[in-house]
Amino acid sequence: MSGPSPVRPAVIIPTFNNVGTVATVAAQARRHGLPVYVVDDGSTDGSGEAARSTGATVLVHGTNRGKGAALLTGMEVLRREGFTHAICLDADGQHDADDVPRFAAAILDRPHAIYAGLRDLSTAPEKSRFGRKFSNFWIWVETGWRVADSQCGFRAYPIDEVLALGLGGSRYDMEVEVLTRCLWRGVPVVDLPCNVWYPKPEERVTSFDPVWDNIRISWMNARLVARRIVDPRRWPSARERLPWTGGTRGVVMGWALTIWAIRTLGRRVVYPFVSLAAVFYWAISPAQRKNVARFLERAGSKRGTLRSFLSFGEALVDRIAHLLRGPGELVQTSDGVDSLVQVFSNPAGAVLLSGHFGNVEVSAGASGLAERLRRIRIVRFVGANDPNLAVMEQVPETWRPTLIAVNSGEGFAALEIIRELRAGAIVAMLGDRTIDQRVVQVMFLGYPVDLPAGPWLVAALARVPVIVVGNFKEGRDTYRMFASAPMNVRFERGRDRDEQVREWAQAYADQVEAWVKRYPEQWYNYHAFWGE
Could you tell me which of 219, 235, 267, 246 has the C-alpha nearest to residue 141? Predict the structure, then answer.
C-alpha cells in the first residue's frame, strides 16, 4: 500500500510593477532552499526581468489579469511540476521572506490546511485595521469560522484543494473567496503569525483599486452570503443556532467594526450591511421565525417575519449611533409625554417601564429629556462577556447612562433599585423580561403570559409612580415616543397583594398591546413569549 504523497512546497510571488522591491523579495525567499516562481502580471516597468536576475523562475501574463489570476497561474504550473503546496507572499516588500521556513514547517503538521498569515497591525494604517475587521466579519457570516486575518496575502495553500474550487475571482477578491469556499469544503484555515513592514504612503506601490476592487469584493460577499442562505449544507449545525437578540447576536453584528463604522461613516452607510446580516440570521433561525410569526398572527398583522429582523437590525444601528453621537442624531416627536417631563421635573424617583419593542433607548431627545439623563439608571440583564458593554465604554460621559446590572444567577437587584428610587433616580427597566421566579400571569393579545412581578414590587415598596414608555420608528430618521399616564402603585390594606400586582401588570400589557398592534414589525421578543 502506498503512503501519502510527500509534501513539496514552492514559493509564488505575484507582481505588477514592483521593480523596486521584487528582486529583493525573490532573492530573500530563494535563500531558504525552496523553488521560487514569480508571476509577472503584465508589468510595464521591468519587474519580470528584475526577478529573473535573482535566479527565480518567471511566469508572464501578457496583460494585467489581477492578483488572483496570477496566484492561480502559479499554482497550475506548480501542480504540473509535481509540487503540492504554494507559499505565497507579496512582491512589494511588506512581507518578510524570512518567514517562509515557518510556513514550510507548518505544512508538514497539517498538509490539508490553509495557513493564513496573521499580521500585527498595531502600527499599520487605520484603513488596514478596518479592512481586516470588515473582511473577517463577512468570512464569519459566510462560514461561521473565525479567521483572525482574512486579508493578509502571506499564505500557504494546498494546491489540489484550491484548484478544485473553480474560483471565479481573478483579482483581490480571490484571496477572500478562496477562504470561504475552502471552509465550505471542510478545509481548515489556521492562523500563523508573520512579520510585516509598512513603507511610507508615498513609497508604497500597490495595484489595489480602492473603488473597483472594493466593489468586486462586496459583490463577491453578497453572492457568497446568498449562496449560504439557499444551501442548508452551509448553515451552522443546530447546536450553533442561537436566538437573535441584542445580547446573543451582538457579537455576530461585529461590535468593534460597527462602532467604528457608525462613528466614522454614519448609520446610513451601515444600514445595508446590517440588513444583509439580518437576512442571514432570519434564514438560519427557524425557532425565532416561528415565534415572530405567532406574535404577528395574534396581533392581526399580515406582515412577514423578515420585516421584524430587518427592523431590529436598524434599531441596533440607531441605538449605537444615538449613544455615540448624542441625542441630536435622530429626530424625536412625542405623543403624551407631558407625564415624563413632569416626572423629571419632580425630585422624587420614578420607574420607566418598557420592553422588547420599539427603541426606547434612543428617546433621550424627546421633549428636552437629554438634559436630565444624569438621573436615569438602566436596569440591564448582563451575561458573561456582554458585548454591549463595549458600546457603553465608547459613549461620551456627557450622556452615558448608569447601569444597574442583573443576571439570572443573582436574581433581581431589588434592594439596590429601591435605594436608587428613594434617592430620586429615574429607573428604567423591562416589563417583559423575567429574571427570577416572581412572575404574574396576565392576558396579552388574547393569550395568558407570565410577566415579571419585580418592577411592580420595587415601585410599590419605594412608593414611586410607574410610567409605561415606548419609542417607535416612523421614518428613516424619525421616532415617535409614547408615555402612559403615571400609575401610582400603592399596596392597599386588606387586598391581596398578588392580585394588585396582577392588575398593574395587566394595565402594562394592555398599553403595550395597543402600541405593538400599531407597529407590529417593531416587536423584538424572539423567544417563546407565551411559553409555547
Answer: 235
Judgement on whether residues 200 and 334 belong to the same structural domain of the protein: no
Q: Answer yes or no: is 93 within a domain.
A: yes
Among the three residues 184, 207, 229, which one is the final residue of a domain in this structure? 229
290 within a domain of the structure (yes/no): no
**DSSP assigned state of 486:** P
Q: How many CB atoms lie within 10 A of CB 215?
A: 12
Strands (E), 198-273: none
Write out the residue range of the structural domain in which residue 401 sits.
330-522
71 assigned to some structural domain: yes
How many domains is the chain partitioned into structurally?
Answer: 2
HEC secondary structure over 29-78: HHCCCCCEEEEEECCCCCHHHHHHCCCCEEEEECCCCCHHHHHHHHHHHH
Give the Å distances, CA to CA, from 307 to 6, 300, 310.
54, 15, 5
pLDDT of the chain, 532 residues: tens digit per residue: 444 558 999 999 999 999 999 999 999 999 999 999 999 999 999 999 999 999 999 999 999 988 888 999 999 999 999 999 999 999 998 899 999 999 999 999 899 999 999 988 776 666 667 666 777 777 776 776 778 888 888 999 999 999 998 776 556 568 888 888 888 888 889 999 999 887 655 545 555 555 455 555 666 666 666 655 545 444 443 333 333 343 444 444 456 667 778 878 888 888 988 898 889 889 888 899 999 999 999 999 999 999 999 999 999 899 888 877 776 778 878 776 777 777 778 888 999 999 999 998 887 655 455 556 667 888 876 554 455 555 556 555 655 667 777 654 444 567 778 888 998 989 999 999 876 668 899 999 999 999 999 899 889 989 999 999 999 999 888 999 999 999 999 988 888 888 999 999 999 999 999 999 999 999 999 988 998 6
Measure Cα distances from 59 to 56, 79, 506 in Å.
Answer: 10, 14, 77
213 and 354 housed in the same domain = no
CB atoms near residue 301 (< 10 Å): 17
Which of 181, 206, 229 is at the close of a domain? 229
Same domain assignment for residues 220 and 362: no
Pair 194, 114: CB distance under 8 Å: no
Largest Cα separation within the chain, whole Å, is 100
At 131, which CATH number? 3.90.550.10
244 lies in a domain? no
| Count of helices and strands (H, E) across the chain | 17, 17
Burial 98-112 (b: 16+ CB within 10 A, else e): ebbebbbebbeeebe
As a whole number of angstroms, the distance between CA 290 and CA 349 comes to 40
- 224 plus 337 within the same structural domain: no
